[in-house]
Design a protein that fits this description.
Elements: H1 12-36, H2 39-68, H3 82-91, H4 94-130, H5 145-164, H6 170-209
Length: 210
């Protein structure tokens, strides 16, 4: 006799509680964001970001290009097919794949945290000055953290392909390409959110002068 499976039903009351908890979590996250949003924190993050982009990433990219003979780096592409992904991975030597894994686990896990925090906190500070305190627009800077999540998902796919090579896992390559495309899309949206805040702040100050 097969055991009866329990049915999960969502009543209007339970849906209301889920929504209420979601709003509460969003409120807590926004409060934490507001506490961290100051020029000291942003300046410190910006310095770290500059060091990573001026020193760490160029070093890693140069090494990986040397190992692959200029085949390229998956993280920097907008998208790729499974065949292209494994052609690039195959172009690395064992030493190159080992370095790629180490570099991804180190620099490429710190970098997304730094740039996401820097962009999100800066956008929060600008929105605080550009919009009314109770405006729903203050939620928008939190969207920038989606880029962080997508970057980590992309890294997980790349690490899986690297550590399982020469075995091919096609759906992981396809998922990695999707996360890469979505990452760059969200990065562009993050920049647009920041620019939107800057433009609205300028408009607000121009109105005050007239």
């Amino acid at each position: 006799m097969k055991p009866k499976s329990a049915k999960i039903t969502m009543t209007p009351t339970s849906l209301f509680h889920v929504k209420k908890r979601g709003i509460a979590m969003l409120t807590v996250l926004r409060r934490m964001q507001n506490r961290l949003s100051n020029w000291q924190a942003i300046s410190g993050l910006f310095i770290v970001l500059l060091v990573i982009e001026a020193v760490v990433l160029p070093y890693g990219s140069s090494k990986l290009n040397d190992y692959s003979g200029g085949a390229g780096i998956l993280d920097l592409r907008l998208s790729y097919s499974a065949d292209k992904a494994y052609a690039i991975i195959g172009a690395y030597s064992d030493a190159g794949r080992s370095f790629y894994v180490t570099f991804t686990l180190a620099a490429d896990y710190i970098y997304p945290i730094v740039y996401s925090l820097c962009f999100s906190l800066l956008t929060t500070v600008i929105y605080r000055r550009a919009f009314a305190p109770k405006s729903w627009l203050h939620q928008l800077p939190l969207l920038i953290y989606i880029t962080l999540l997508l970057d980590y998902l992309e890294n997980a796919c790349i690490l899986t392909m690297l550590t399982n090579y020469p075995d091919r896992i096609t759906f992981i390559a396809q998922a990695g390409s999707l996360f890469t495309t979505l990452k760059w899309t969200m990065a562009a949206i993050s920049i647009l959110l920041l620019l939107f805040g800057i433009v609205m702040l300028i408009v607000k100050r121009l109105r005050k002068t007239h």
